[in-house]
Amino acid sequence: MDANDPKVTRKIRKYIMRIDRSLCIGAATCVALAPKAWVLDKEAKAVILDSSDQESDEALLSAAKGCPVAAITIIDNETGKQVFP
Ligand code: SF4
Q: pTM for the complete prediction?
């Protein structure tokens, strides 16, 4: 999947959220913490949903923090700084 595909890299308000699918082990913690933002695809790896903007910034961040392999990166869209990990 292309790195710019909205399923793996997406701007959501003040965040740019990105997943490294090569790291994802399908633990689905992100799905449990932000179910409108994340779903497992048929490869059992997480992809970003179109409804991801319905999750709060806090939920998006906690989903990233909850990932056991830190596959989700959050970048501040205004400063360009990495918020997590
Ligand atoms: S929590 Fe991490 S490892 Fe689990 S499905 Fe989400 S991105 Fe993948």
A: 0.95
44-73 residue pLDDT tens: 999 999 999 999 999 999 999 999 999 999
61 Cβ neighbours under 8 A, 6+ residues apart: 15, 74, 83, 84
Q: Is the CB of 27 under 6 A from ligand 1?
A: yes
14-43 pLDDT, tens per residue? 999 999 999 999 999 999 999 999 999 999
Tell me if 26 CB under 6 Å of ligand 1: yes
Sketch the domain layout of the chain as residue ranges: 9-84
Bridge partners for 46 per DSSP: 40
The class level of CATH for 9-84 reads: alpha beta
